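thought: fold this chain, then report.
action: predict
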Amino acid sequence: MKHGPLAICYGTRPQVIKASMLIEASAKLWPLVTVDTGQHYDYSLNELFYEQLGVRKPDHFLEVGSGAHAVQTAHVLTRAATVFEAAKPRAVVVIGDTNSTLGCALAAVQLRIPMVHVEAGLRSNDRAMAEEINRRVVDSVADLLCAPSAAASAQLELEHQWGVIANTGDIAHDVLRRNLARAIAPANVKGWPLKAGEKFAIATLHRAELTGSAESLTAMIGALRGLPLPVVLPAHPRVRDALAKLGLTSGGMLHIMSPLGYFEMIGAIRDAAIVITDSGGVQREAYWMGTKCVTIRTETEWHETVALGANTLVAPARAGVELVPAVKKRLATDGTWDNGAYGAGDAAVRITDAIGAMVRARV
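observation:
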């Protein structure tokens, strides 16, 4: 296994984005086998990002689709194990905290293949979040822990994780720096519902805490409709289905549209007056681009965005009451902060250096 390819695994929109830089950097050093679990299987949330970011088609597409956490994770684990048994990779790289991350990580560990966790050490301390359990389990069995910040690295040290810890910075920062010049202005996006130059908020909602609760989702949509500026909500297919079942549509200040590609989304975040989100990726993109952010979560694993004044948290259960005043307060701030908490945009090189050191140590 020590001399086989490096396996890089992903399965969701944010993971495809991060994998784009990691695949490029790794391909210069080792043969690769790439695995897309198919956790996000809608074209606009998967293949569009492949095309925009120049990611090669995966060597293996596991087609796990949606499903309950246990079912989805089990499908990832068993199908990934079959791939790893045949490919005999020198190491398996997983990214983030999804069911794809957990399933591929467990498959590697059970086959005694060295496993690398990118985005290690993040903690929201919210046990109700499946992602929190996933990231903690993966960190506990990883051979190499690539932390995106000094705080994440310190958290791993505090927990006495037995894997090697490397503070690499956040690879999503690499991707943004590479592609920001290619961002598409909202006025040039097909289907953009507002006039060119009109001040707006961009919103994203996808976590089950909101979309899985009719009461919370209804209250959230009502709050978005009542904001003091137009709000554009590019809706994930699962969100569109949830909205349709409740009869929730565009109205007031809210404009619901189809999902955006990566270049379109970073253009919207860059040009927005404020971002309203429950996405970890969008929180950081807003942080790096200097756009004010309100996050609809009780806790965030990206603590630095809050500590540095870039981000405000609103609990999902309170969003119907607290979102409007939180947005107004954020809009009134000056909007300047230190955006260097997650490295200098060279995480891909730092990660591959750490992987190389691990592989050499095991020969």
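thought: worth noting. The mean pLDDT is 93.
final: tokens above.
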